[in-house]
Design brief:
Layout (H helix, E strand, L loop, with lengths): L6 E6 L2 E6 L9 E4 L8 H8 L3 E5 L8 H18 L5 E6 L1 H12 L4 E7 L5 H4 L10 H12 L3 H4 L11 H5 L4 E6 L11 H10 L4 E6 L13 H10 L3
Parallel strand pairs: 3-4, 3-5, 5-6, 6-7, 7-8
Antiparallel strand pairs: 1-2, 2-4
Helix pairs in contact: 2-3
Length: about 240
């Protein structure tokens, strides 16, 4: 069981994978939680109670290289077939999971209905300490980036596959976004990550709702009452 819901655990593409089943009648839709399966589950539980299936696959790296995104897309298609539901799903991306969600939406817009981003990493250069605002976790992040992409400091500065570099497909495919952030977050600096996406959406007519959590750091994610997030997702799923 997962928070009182039936869960199926299996292996997909040599990665641990999970499907959580609603107790009520399924509504033919899925919620893909891109990272941190057990973290801050209030929204996930609310969506399960609406009839969504919750799906998740683990990753060899959390920094969204193309090969991991491709495997996640195969996983979504597999789950849609297995569950006989729509391939277009809700994407939930917390922190590094935000980068995974945004990269997925960029490369696979046909599988994306709505995005819920929460203190999302959208700028790898910022996380590596190359922005104006220094993150508190630069050194540990840097080791992960080297392991994932084989960066040197001179090659990273030319990296152009962060979500903030590829926002056009999100607008072109009318992907709505609801985004939360803490205005005291020193781990993922909003001005260099989520704010770039917020400004781009507003300048280009995209559908976006942004919620600032006053005096809040990187944690906690989500809201004690996730109703406003659930309502946004439900309202914009078909648009």
């Amino acid at each position: 069981m997962w928070n009182g819901f039936k869960i199926k655990k299996f292996v997909f593409a040599e990665r641990d994978a999970f499907i959580v089943y609603p107790k009520c009648k399924a509504n033919g839709r899925m919620l893909l939680k891109t990272e941190y399966m057990d973290a801050f589950p209030a929204f996930d539980i609310a969506m399960l109670e609406k009839g969504y299936h919750l799906i998740h696959i683990t990753h060899q790296t959390r920094w969204a290289p193309d090969w991991e995104t491709d495997i996640m897309a195969d996983f979504v298609r597999y789950c849609a077939t297995e569950l006989e539901v729509s391939e277009r799903c809700v994407l939930e991306g917390m922190s590094a999971g935000g980068m995974q969600a945004a990269r997925f939406a960029e490369l696979y817009p046909e599988l994306t209905a709505v995005m819920y981003l929460d203190a999302p990493v959208l700028n790898l250069l910022s996380q590596a300490g190359l922005g104006e605002h220094k993150s508190d976790v630069v050194e540990s992040r840097w080791r992960e980036f080297v392991a994932t992409y084989g960066f040197s400091r001179s090659t990273l500065i030319n990296f152009r596959k962060s979500p903030i570099d590829k926002m056009e497909p999100l607008i072109e495919n009318n992907i709505p976004v609801i985004m939360l952030y803490g205005n005291a977050d020193s781990v993922v600096v909003y001005e260099e990550n989520g704010k770039v996406l917020e400004d781009y959406y507003k300048e280009n007519g995209g559908i976006i709702k942004v919620i600032s959590r006053s005096m809040c750091g990187h944690h906690p994610h989500g809201l004690d009452d996730p109703e406003i997030i659930v309502n946004f997702v439900e309202e914009h799923f078909e648009k």
